[in-house]
Write a structure and sequence with these properties.
Forms an icosahedral capsid composed of 60 subunits, arranged as a dodecamer of pentamers. By secondary structure, the protein is an alpha/beta fold. It has a single domain, classed as Lumazine/riboflavin synthase (Rossmann fold). The strands form two sheets. A four-stranded parallel β-sheet has the order 2-1-3-4, with helices on both faces. Helix 3 links the parallel strand 3 and strand 4. Helix 1 packs across helix 5 and helix 2 runs parallel beside helix 3. It is globular and about 50 Å long.
Length: 154
């Protein structure tokens, strides 16, 4: 039996991070977590490109453009969609999720999902570095592992 596992080393890897500015109190903490993860796993900060976009809805387009350049081993998508009193939350969350998945499948570049979709600002804060960890860190860790899994398969 052969089992393929991706290791968790970011040494020599190039990353793009697409981060939404909307809810920047949250997204900046996610960004800090992602960069911290890459550095802690042997990555070089000079191999990270950060692209800021207005909000989560705009992330898939930029992720696709970045993936098509073939400059990046993985793309990390970070945003925060917090439920309000209208159905806007559902539309943005659903379309952002579908778009990110589609980009990954079309380009075959690992695209990690670090979009928070929460009911309250408190839940978002908990997931951006307090008691629920930092989901930006988790998204970067997923990206690192996926790059290495793909290398093992190829």
């Amino acid at each position: 039996m052969k089992i393929i596992n991706g290791n968790l080393t970011a040494e020599g890897l190039n990353f793009a991070i697409v981060v939404g500015r909307f809810n920047s109190l949250i997204t900046e903490k996610l960004l800090e977590g992602a960069i911290d993860c890459i550095e802690r796993h042997g990555g070089n900060i000079d191999n990270i490109t950060v692209v800021r976009v207005p909000g989560s809805f705009e992330i898939p387009l930029i992720a696709k453009k970045l993936a098509k350049t073939k400059k990046y081993d993985a793309i990390i998508c970070l945003g925060a969609v917090i439920r309000g009193s209208t159905p806007h939350f559902d539309f943005v969350a659903n379309e952002t999720t579908k778009g990110i998945a589609q980009v990954s499948l079309e380009t075959e570049v690992p695209i990690s999902y670090g979009i928070l979709t929460t009911d309250t600002i408190e839940q978002a804060i908990e997931r951006a570095g307090t008691k629920m960890g930092n989901k930006g860190f988790d998204a970067a860790l997923t990206a690192i592992e996926m790059v290495n899994v793909l290398k093992e398969i190829e």
